Automatic annotation (TrEMBL):
Signal peptide: none annotated. This is Aminoglycoside phosphotransferase. Residues 44-205 form the Aminoglycoside phosphotransferase domain. InterPro entries: AGP_Transferase (IPR051678), Aminoglycoside_PTrfase (IPR002575), Kinase-like_dom_sf (IPR011009). The lineage of its organism: Bacteria, Bacillati, Actinomycetota, Actinomycetes, Pseudonocardiales. It comes from Kibdelosporangium persicum.
Length: 249
């Protein structure tokens, strides 16, 4: 690693932290299972991922990817339509790969967590009751049987890196597992509905848009409590609460 003159704190809370030192990221996670999955998933994924430099639990050192993030939730993306389409094509390549050999979440598990989170949001007066109920009804569309594929599981736009119109890599694989293909597509376009057409052009197959919208509502409902409890603001413009407020029946 080259000499560095500062350490950047990328994210930090009581469960995990990520630090950047020059061209190296140091990920520290109290749950070793998360980094076990991350390392295994990156080794299996048929798309570009960061190089693992070394690992000494609870620390994982990975090389920085070239390029910049596709975008950030709550901010306009300056990436080109071709870059978004390239992201869609990369997701399709991942989904076409053999399944990872560990289990994913079942519909019943997701439903139970969703109901618990909705109850918490209403009980603690975090969101208006009608907003929660409306989005819970929308989310129901996603809670159906699916054919599992190799999913990233947390495919936020900030986890996809591009250089011009080319994908240079995808980071943060700790939630990778067999799952619903449309969940990855929904996560990638959360808060950026206007980019969905570009992503699907690259993905190359028809999808059920109602299910995509259902996953937008479901992911946002699941995320609000965690964000609040970890010091983030889900009500910032363009973020989860905005997504819930703009949802359509």
């Amino acid at each position: 690693m080259a000499d560095v003159d500062k350490i950047e704190v990328v994210v930090a809370h009581h469960e995990r932290a990520t630090l950047r030192a020059g061209d190296v990221f140091l990920k520290i996670d109290v749950d070793r299972a998360n980094t076990d999955v991350e390392v295994a998933a990156m080794a299996l994924a048929p798309i570009p991922t960061p190089e693992v430099l070394w690992r000494k639990p609870p620390v994982l050192a990975i090389a920085a990817l070239p390029g910049t993030a596709l975008g950030r939730l709550g901010e306009p993306s300056t990436a080109s339509p071709a870059a978004w389409a390239a992201a869609g094509a990369a997701v399709r390549t991942l989904h076409d790969a053999p399944l990872p050999p560990w289990p994913g979440r079942s519909v019943d598990e997701i439903t139970a967590r969703l109901d618990s989170e909705c109850e918490w949001l209403v009980t603690h007066d975090v969101l208006p009751t009608e907003l929660v109920r409306r989005n819970r009804r929308i989310a129901e569309t996603a809670l159906r049987p699916w054919t599992p594929v190799f999913t990233h599981g947390d495919l936020q736009i900030s986890h996809v890196f591009v250089d011009g119109d080319e994908i240079t890599g995808v980071i943060d694989w700790s939630e990778a597992a067999p799952g619903d293909a449309l969940y990855d597509l929904a996560t990638l376009t959360l808060g950026h509905e206007e980019r969905l057409g570009d992503v699907l052009a690259g993905y190359g197959t028809d999808v059920d848009l109602d299910v995509i919208r259902a996953w937008w509502s479901l992911r946002s409902l699941l995320g609000v409590r965690w964000l609040v409890e970890h010091g983030f603001d889900p009500s910032a413009p363009g973020c989860e609460v905005d997504v819930l407020s703009r949802s359509r029946r």
